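Input record, target 12 of the design panel.
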């Protein structure tokens, strides 16, 4: 199983960015998918997650500014729309998925996507 993250980049404060994460491989089903972030010198933290039924959960710091959703046009893909970005949102963002394969159910991580917000 592989998680491919796309998006990120450099944006001014108040701007928007979009991250996407696509899971591929011998997947039977995907449970929760989510985005985490890690800023320099800080622990990795949950940003947002979504269940198979579409229920979402957000960190208080991003609630109302970020939206996680499933990309209905692409299989096993979630999108994180980030609006009204702040300098404190600067971090490496990681996609995570709880994936059931024919052998087991495990957590998988994608490669990080750098998000830099300039003030």
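The sequence produced for target 12 reads:
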């Amino acid at each position: 199983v592989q998680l491919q993250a796309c998006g990120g980049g450099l944006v001014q404060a108040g701007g928007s960015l979009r991250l996407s994460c696509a899971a591929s491989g011998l997947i039977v089903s995907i449970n929760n998918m989510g985005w985490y972030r890690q800023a320099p010198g800080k622990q990795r933290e949950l940003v947002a997650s979504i269940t198979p039924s579409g229920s979402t959960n957000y960190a208080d710091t991003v609630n109302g500014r970020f939206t996680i959703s499933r990309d209905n046009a692409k299989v096993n893909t979630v999108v994180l729309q980030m609006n009204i970005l702040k300098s404190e949102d600067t971090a490496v963002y990681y996609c995570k998925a709880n994936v059931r394969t024919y052998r087991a159910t495990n957590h998988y991580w994608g490669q990080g996507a750098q998000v830099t917000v300039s003030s």
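The chain has no helices and eleven strands.
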